[in-house]
Write a structure and sequence with these properties.
Number of helices: 6
Structural class: mainly alpha
Number of strands: 4
Largest sheet: 2 strands, antiparallel
Helix content: 40-55%
Order of helices and strands: EEHEEHHHHH
Distance between the termini: 71 Å
Shape: elongated
Length: 225
Protein backbone atom coordinates (compact mmCIF):
# COMPACT_ATOMS: atom_id res chain seq x y z
CA UNK A 1 0.00 0.00 0.00
CA UNK A 2 1.27 3.47 -0.83
CA UNK A 3 1.52 6.34 1.60
CA UNK A 4 -2.07 7.29 2.14
CA UNK A 5 -4.16 9.20 4.62
CA UNK A 6 -7.14 7.56 6.21
CA UNK A 7 -9.97 9.87 7.29
CA UNK A 8 -11.78 8.81 10.46
CA UNK A 9 -14.78 10.59 11.87
CA UNK A 10 -14.78 11.09 15.63
CA UNK A 11 -17.29 12.67 17.95
CA UNK A 12 -16.01 14.67 20.89
CA UNK A 13 -17.74 15.31 24.19
CA UNK A 14 -19.61 18.38 22.86
CA UNK A 15 -21.28 16.37 20.12
CA UNK A 16 -19.26 17.90 17.28
CA UNK A 17 -17.98 15.67 14.57
CA UNK A 18 -14.34 15.98 13.61
CA UNK A 19 -12.05 14.33 11.10
CA UNK A 20 -8.70 12.86 12.04
CA UNK A 21 -6.23 11.99 9.33
CA UNK A 22 -4.02 9.02 10.07
CA UNK A 23 -0.90 8.37 8.04
CA UNK A 24 -0.69 4.69 7.20
CA UNK A 25 2.77 3.18 6.67
CA UNK A 26 3.91 1.04 3.80
CA UNK A 27 3.53 -2.46 5.14
CA UNK A 28 4.99 -5.67 3.80
CA UNK A 29 1.62 -7.39 3.98
CA UNK A 30 0.02 -4.71 1.84
CA UNK A 31 1.57 -6.30 -1.24
CA UNK A 32 0.08 -9.72 -0.48
CA UNK A 33 -3.39 -11.01 -1.12
CA UNK A 34 -5.54 -10.69 1.96
CA UNK A 35 -8.07 -13.38 2.93
CA UNK A 36 -11.05 -13.24 0.64
CA UNK A 37 -14.32 -12.06 2.04
CA UNK A 38 -17.88 -12.30 0.82
CA UNK A 39 -17.49 -8.90 -0.84
CA UNK A 40 -14.39 -10.00 -2.75
CA UNK A 41 -14.59 -13.72 -3.55
CA UNK A 42 -11.51 -15.42 -5.05
CA UNK A 43 -11.32 -15.60 -8.81
CA UNK A 44 -11.66 -19.03 -10.33
CA UNK A 45 -8.39 -20.52 -11.59
CA UNK A 46 -6.18 -17.92 -9.94
CA UNK A 47 -3.44 -18.95 -7.52
CA UNK A 48 -3.31 -16.87 -4.38
CA UNK A 49 -0.18 -14.73 -4.02
CA UNK A 50 -0.15 -15.53 -0.31
CA UNK A 51 -0.04 -19.27 -1.05
CA UNK A 52 2.80 -18.78 -3.53
CA UNK A 53 4.81 -16.82 -0.97
CA UNK A 54 4.13 -19.44 1.68
CA UNK A 55 5.46 -22.35 -0.37
CA UNK A 56 8.37 -20.26 -1.60
CA UNK A 57 9.35 -19.53 1.99
CA UNK A 58 9.07 -23.25 2.79
CA UNK A 59 11.41 -24.13 -0.08
CA UNK A 60 13.87 -21.41 0.94
CA UNK A 61 13.87 -22.60 4.54
CA UNK A 62 14.44 -26.23 3.54
CA UNK A 63 17.22 -25.25 1.13
CA UNK A 64 18.92 -23.20 3.83
CA UNK A 65 18.83 -26.08 6.32
CA UNK A 66 20.19 -28.58 3.78
CA UNK A 67 22.87 -26.13 2.68
CA UNK A 68 23.95 -25.62 6.28
CA UNK A 69 24.23 -29.38 6.81
CA UNK A 70 26.23 -29.87 3.60
CA UNK A 71 28.54 -26.96 4.45
CA UNK A 72 29.26 -28.35 7.92
CA UNK A 73 29.98 -31.80 6.44
CA UNK A 74 32.35 -30.39 3.82
CA UNK A 75 34.09 -28.09 6.29
CA UNK A 76 34.36 -30.21 9.42
CA UNK A 77 33.55 -33.89 8.72
CA UNK A 78 35.94 -34.51 5.83
CA UNK A 79 39.67 -34.07 6.41
CA UNK A 80 41.15 -30.86 5.01
CA UNK A 81 42.84 -30.41 1.67
CA UNK A 82 44.07 -33.26 -0.48
CA UNK A 83 43.73 -35.68 2.43
CA UNK A 84 40.09 -36.21 1.42
CA UNK A 85 41.15 -38.54 -1.40
CA UNK A 86 39.59 -41.94 -0.82
CA UNK A 87 37.20 -40.74 1.90
CA UNK A 88 33.47 -41.39 1.43
CA UNK A 89 30.40 -40.43 3.42
CA UNK A 90 27.16 -42.29 2.69
CA UNK A 91 28.56 -43.48 -0.62
CA UNK A 92 29.63 -40.01 -1.81
CA UNK A 93 33.10 -38.55 -2.07
CA UNK A 94 34.28 -35.10 -1.05
CA UNK A 95 33.85 -33.81 -4.59
CA UNK A 96 30.28 -35.07 -4.75
CA UNK A 97 29.45 -33.36 -1.45
CA UNK A 98 30.92 -30.14 -2.85
CA UNK A 99 28.66 -30.54 -5.89
CA UNK A 100 25.65 -30.97 -3.60
CA UNK A 101 26.65 -27.84 -1.72
CA UNK A 102 26.91 -25.87 -4.97
CA UNK A 103 23.52 -27.15 -6.17
CA UNK A 104 21.90 -26.06 -2.90
CA UNK A 105 23.53 -22.63 -3.18
CA UNK A 106 22.14 -22.30 -6.71
CA UNK A 107 18.67 -23.37 -5.53
CA UNK A 108 18.77 -20.90 -2.67
CA UNK A 109 19.92 -18.11 -4.98
CA UNK A 110 17.12 -18.78 -7.47
CA UNK A 111 14.59 -18.84 -4.63
CA UNK A 112 15.82 -15.51 -3.27
CA UNK A 113 15.64 -14.02 -6.77
CA UNK A 114 12.03 -15.17 -7.19
CA UNK A 115 11.19 -13.86 -3.70
CA UNK A 116 12.58 -10.42 -4.56
CA UNK A 117 10.69 -10.42 -7.87
CA UNK A 118 7.41 -11.14 -6.09
CA UNK A 119 8.07 -8.27 -3.66
CA UNK A 120 9.63 -5.86 -6.16
CA UNK A 121 6.69 -3.43 -6.00
CA UNK A 122 7.05 -3.24 -2.23
CA UNK A 123 10.83 -2.76 -2.52
CA UNK A 124 10.40 0.09 -4.98
CA UNK A 125 7.71 1.63 -2.77
CA UNK A 126 9.92 1.62 0.32
CA UNK A 127 12.89 2.92 -1.65
CA UNK A 128 11.01 5.79 -3.25
CA UNK A 129 8.80 6.76 -0.30
CA UNK A 130 10.90 6.10 2.77
CA UNK A 131 14.49 6.48 1.52
CA UNK A 132 14.30 8.90 -1.41
CA UNK A 133 11.27 10.78 -0.01
CA UNK A 134 9.55 10.92 -3.36
CA UNK A 135 5.85 11.69 -3.66
CA UNK A 136 5.00 8.90 -6.09
CA UNK A 137 6.05 5.34 -6.72
CA UNK A 138 7.45 4.56 -10.21
CA UNK A 139 5.03 2.86 -12.56
CA UNK A 140 5.25 -0.76 -13.67
CA UNK A 141 7.47 -0.04 -16.68
CA UNK A 142 10.04 1.92 -14.69
CA UNK A 143 10.08 -0.72 -11.95
CA UNK A 144 10.69 -3.42 -14.55
CA UNK A 145 13.58 -1.46 -16.05
CA UNK A 146 15.11 -0.98 -12.61
CA UNK A 147 14.78 -4.69 -11.82
CA UNK A 148 16.29 -5.87 -15.11
CA UNK A 149 19.12 -3.35 -14.79
CA UNK A 150 19.91 -4.51 -11.26
CA UNK A 151 19.90 -8.16 -12.35
CA UNK A 152 22.24 -7.44 -15.28
CA UNK A 153 24.59 -5.49 -13.01
CA UNK A 154 24.76 -8.38 -10.52
CA UNK A 155 25.39 -10.92 -13.29
CA UNK A 156 28.16 -8.77 -14.79
CA UNK A 157 29.78 -8.36 -11.38
CA UNK A 158 29.76 -12.12 -10.82
CA UNK A 159 31.12 -12.79 -14.31
CA UNK A 160 33.97 -10.31 -13.81
CA UNK A 161 34.94 -11.82 -10.45
CA UNK A 162 34.88 -15.38 -11.82
CA UNK A 163 36.82 -14.36 -14.93
CA UNK A 164 39.53 -12.62 -12.92
CA UNK A 165 39.76 -15.62 -10.58
CA UNK A 166 40.13 -18.01 -13.52
CA UNK A 167 42.90 -15.94 -15.10
CA UNK A 168 44.87 -15.39 -11.90
CA UNK A 169 44.69 -18.86 -10.33
CA UNK A 170 48.09 -20.54 -9.84
CA UNK A 171 48.58 -24.27 -10.23
CA UNK A 172 50.94 -25.93 -7.73
CA UNK A 173 52.42 -28.04 -10.56
CA UNK A 174 53.83 -25.02 -12.42
CA UNK A 175 57.38 -24.18 -11.33
CA UNK A 176 60.26 -22.14 -12.69
CA UNK A 177 62.01 -25.32 -13.88
CA UNK A 178 59.07 -26.17 -16.15
CA UNK A 179 59.35 -23.03 -18.27
CA UNK A 180 58.99 -24.95 -21.50
CA UNK A 181 55.34 -25.63 -20.66
CA UNK A 182 54.36 -22.25 -19.24
CA UNK A 183 51.11 -20.88 -20.66
CA UNK A 184 51.68 -18.43 -23.53
CA UNK A 185 50.14 -15.00 -23.21
CA UNK A 186 46.44 -15.15 -24.04
CA UNK A 187 46.35 -18.97 -24.24
CA UNK A 188 43.95 -20.76 -21.95
CA UNK A 189 44.65 -24.37 -21.14
CA UNK A 190 42.96 -26.50 -18.58
CA UNK A 191 44.80 -27.36 -15.39
CA UNK A 192 44.75 -31.13 -16.04
CA UNK A 193 46.53 -30.58 -19.37
CA UNK A 194 49.15 -28.37 -17.74
CA UNK A 195 49.69 -30.92 -14.98
CA UNK A 196 50.08 -33.70 -17.56
CA UNK A 197 52.67 -31.71 -19.50
CA UNK A 198 54.58 -30.89 -16.35
CA UNK A 199 54.57 -34.56 -15.37
CA UNK A 200 56.01 -35.44 -18.77
CA UNK A 201 58.72 -32.82 -18.27
CA UNK A 202 59.66 -34.28 -14.90
CA UNK A 203 59.79 -37.76 -16.40
CA UNK A 204 62.05 -36.48 -19.15
CA UNK A 205 64.43 -34.89 -16.65
CA UNK A 206 64.56 -38.05 -14.54
CA UNK A 207 65.21 -40.17 -17.61
CA UNK A 208 67.93 -37.77 -18.74
CA UNK A 209 69.62 -37.96 -15.35
CA UNK A 210 69.56 -41.75 -15.36
CA UNK A 211 70.93 -42.24 -18.85
CA UNK A 212 73.06 -39.12 -19.16
CA UNK A 213 71.13 -37.97 -22.22
CA UNK A 214 69.71 -34.50 -22.71
CA UNK A 215 66.61 -35.67 -24.55
CA UNK A 216 64.58 -38.78 -25.00
CA UNK A 217 62.07 -39.74 -27.66
CA UNK A 218 58.37 -39.06 -26.95
CA UNK A 219 57.74 -42.80 -26.93
CA UNK A 220 60.29 -43.42 -24.18
CA UNK A 221 59.00 -40.43 -22.21
CA UNK A 222 55.44 -41.68 -22.39
CA UNK A 223 56.60 -45.11 -21.23
CA UNK A 224 58.32 -43.49 -18.26
CA UNK A 225 55.13 -41.65 -17.30
Amino acid sequence: MDDQTATIETTNSSGLTGRNKLRTPILHDDMHDHPHTAASPPKAGRVSRTLVNFWLDVVLGAAFVLLSVAAVIVQFVFPPGTATKGWFLWGMSYGQWCSIQFALIALLGIGVLVHVMLHWTWVCGVLSKRILNQSEIPDDGIRTVYGVGLLIALLLFGAVVVGVAQMTIVSPNVSSADTRFELPLGEKLSRPLVAHRNAQARCARLASQRTGLDRRTPQRVSDCC
